[in-house]
Amino acid sequence: MTKRLRTGMILGASLLAAQLGFAENQKNDGGMSRIEREVRREIVTLPYYSLFDHFAFRVDGETVTLMGKVSRPTLKSDAENVVKKIEGVEKVSNRIEVLPLSPNDDGLRLALYRSIYGHTALQTLAIRAVPPIHIIVENGNVTLEGVVASEMQKNIANVQANGVSGVFSVTNNLRVEKES
């Protein structure tokens, strides 16, 4: 199939969808609704969002439930404020936990970052604006969140985190991208 024909088919399908009056909030090809896409975009572009924070959310009609753990107290309210402004969102339930302020945890975050992203197999991941492996430290306990390209990257991150002095436990919640 030629590129021109594929483009025409996609454009034609888009026009047909518009003519049939599909709601703005319908699922797209990626399985995300308009509100889900906008919530995700608003959260990942928050100015102080970093790899030491983890957000999750759920959309139930016009209600968005925010979850996760953040290292800065202002990030919790910032996330709620940007989501409230999204068209179609009527209610925001903010269940984001603020991690305790701790110099020991701050030191562990830095050591974990160096250990994980310092490994040759993971170095290329560190150059992204928000690297895909999120390091959540709470009272010396570490949770790894995010998505990596392979089972090998997931395992290396786990080994590197477990090797950092002062870490009590590591929970590896990393997911592996689906291979196409």
Please tell me about this protein's structure.
There is one protein chain. The chain is of the alpha/beta class and 180 residues long. The protein has two domains: 24-98, Histidine-containing Protein, Chain: A, CATH 3.30.1340; 103-176, Histidine-containing Protein, Chain: A (2-Layer Sandwich), CATH 3.30.1340. 37% of the residues lie in helices and 23% in strands. The chain has five helices and eight strands. The protein has helices spanning 3-19, 34-44, 73-84, 103-117, 151-162, and strands at residues 54-60, 63-70, 91-94, 97-98, 133-138, 141-148, 169-172, 175-176. Strands 1, 2, 3 and 4 form a four-stranded mixed β-sheet that branches. Strands 5, 6, 7 and 8 form a four-stranded mixed β-sheet that branches. α4 packs across α5. It is globular. The two termini are 20 Å apart. Residues 1-29 have low confidence and may be disordered.
Short account of what is shown:
The chain is of the alpha/beta class and 180 residues long.
